[in-house]
Amino acid sequence: MHKAFIFPFIKYIHPIWNFNLPQKGKYALWVNYDLLDENLKNRLDFDPAYSSHSVALRDAAFQALQKGILCFDERLSLSLAENPALSDNYRFIRKYFGKKWVNFIFLLRLFSFKNPFREVVAMFESRNMQKSDVHARPVDYSKEINNSSQLLSSAPLVSVIIPTLNRYVYLRDVLMDLGAQSYNNFEVLICDQSEPVNKAFYQQAESDFGLKIKLIIQEEKALWKARNTCIRESKGEFILLFDDDSRVDPDWIENHLRCLDCFDVDISSGVSLSSVGDKIPAHYAFFRWSDQLDTGNVMMHRKVFSKVGLFDRQFEKQRMGDGEFGLRCYSKGITNISNPLAKRIHLKVSSGGLRQMGSWDGFRPKKWFAPRPVPSVLYMVRKYFGSATALRMVLLQVPFSVMPYKYKGKTKYNILSVLIFALLFPVFCLQILVSWQKASKMLKEGAIIESL
User: Which of the following CATH numbers is that of domain 142-354: 1.20.1600.10, 3.40.50.620, 3.90.550.10, 3.30.300.20?
Assistant: First the structure.
């Protein structure tokens, strides 16, 4: 399977990164430093110490992506022709990801029967490279965003779509935040799968918050069916997907519309802030090309669903349905901007919602002896990236997935997780094998994607 790695070693750190796939959009994802204006060049630290100028341009293009340099002229695209040397790869990893990743990749490649002499020499050549903050000096688009009011002036109808399951306490706060929005031409569609459904709750919410709510009652506990049903029933020109355990500011809808207007793109991916799990990434603070799609906070033009279809129901009661949809959009050349202004606080409550049906994340099943990772994760990765990448992902992530989600990203618990993985290695191998077999069955069955 053809890849578009900016540096091949990125596959060890981000094996299923959207941008590892070939670009099909009519914009410059990887920009050519030589063709940029001086203001943008000044934000980049051009590094001539690579083996050739063309490889140094790859480094600059990676910086540009991370700093939010958005170029909509495909003539500014960098041609990824000459492959980086082995020493270039080690330099790149040491520069942007640090010594620990260099050592990990070195060991991984030795266990993969790479030439040890070549690996040692290449790693040694990068020894003096200091780690760099690739997110320093990002582009500031605040002036452009503030001047983007044409779409707001036309006041298009926005359809806010919320699937819910046994979360009325949190859903009330969600609806209160919607009632306080500065932009008011929107409808709210809620697909309720609770037992029992509390119809009086919605009547009270409409009265308290001045909302018009279209309630859809669904007996089947199925998240993607719920979202698909609401999308079909919606009337808005723009679809805004939301979760039932989130809090947003009064300018949330407005900021999504400003982003779509300012950059003339199809998707505005809002950022999700949470105190549970990993720390908040630095790039959540500025606009950039988005490498993910979170169905708890994303606005898109209705035509997106007409182009790519609705959500794949192979993901019911599993994980990564939104990730698959994001990859599908990317593969069709649909533009997606990460929008720091359209933020939400994701409460990630422990009861109700998808967690009642599935798991905390794709690598942490609710039951100890359930398939690991969740089969839908392997289904998605093998479909878009191939089986070799799926195996690499399993090797990189499963050993760190043993501890509960609340400890995710914490060093001492990562170490403990790896130790438990080593101690119970046969058990985890069985989990992976079962997951792989289930994913194979899903791939054989094929996607369950309906048209809008």
Answer: 3.90.550.10
